[in-house]
Amino acid sequence: MTTMEPWVIGMICNGIIAVAYVFISLAITVPLARSGQLRSNPLGAATASIFFSCAVHHGIHSVHMALPSLGIDDPQGYAMREAWDWPLSLWDVVGAVVGVYYWTLRRNYSSLMEGAQLFQDLRQREQQALELNDTVLQGLVVAKMALDLDDHKRAQESLAVSIDSASRIITDLLGSSYHALDLVRSSAATVGADASPPPSADPGPGEDRPQQKDPERP
């Protein structure tokens, strides 16, 4: 039974990494180009460029090591075969596994990565926040006015509409797979009187500080 040489594993894994990185680069570039964000979103363009350059780098390694097997006398290919040892091959295996694992995650979270949402621009986020704020705030204002007029039925209807609208907007923002995520608040919610900020210990500019008695004076 012959043992597979390290360069063979390196050649195969580098090819897998190159293919995975090329498709990652395309998965970022194509949505940005369709939404016109290639120039306005330098972070997304730079990320795609990094993946593409790494794909070319790993692809060149794989091609050079494969050329001698195709009957092409490539001195660099022979040198790389000789230099490729087991530690390099093991790291190539890790890189290939990570590349494949990324695509399994992308398939599971595809609803969060439609279009250019992976590098969503700030204007769209501000628009979504404004829509959520207006929807909830308007409903709360109507509910408060109804309570002031002792119209409890109208207040309950306004609150129900606000809660339903807010839930629908948040669901659209998170996508259909948010139920599978472990979403936990960073701090407990405050309701009622506990939501008001504590009074400041420092007096205002027009207030006098309480005088403390000097223990050395009688």
Question: How is this structure best described in words?
Answer:
By secondary structure, this protein is mainly alpha-helical. It has 2 domains: 6-119, no CATH class; 122-179. It has helices at residues 6-34, 42-66, 75-83, 86-108, 122-148, 152-174. α1 (6-34) packs antiparallel against α2. The longest helix is centred in the N-terminal third of the chain and has 29 residues, at 6-34. The protein is elongated.
In brief, what are we looking at here?
With 218 residues, this protein is mainly alpha-helical. It has helices at residues 6-34, 42-66, 75-83, 86-108, 122-148, 152-174. It contains 6 helices and no strands.
Q: Helices and strands in order, then pairings?
A:
Blueprint: H1 6-34, H2 42-66, H3 75-83, H4 86-108, H5 122-148, H6 152-174
Helix pairs in contact: 1-2, 1-4, 2-3, 5-6
Q: Note the overall shape.
A: elongated
Work out the radius of gyration.
30 Å
Q: Give the percentage of residues in beta strands.
A: under 5%
Q: Residue share in helices?
A: 55-70%
Average of per-residue pLDDT values: 79
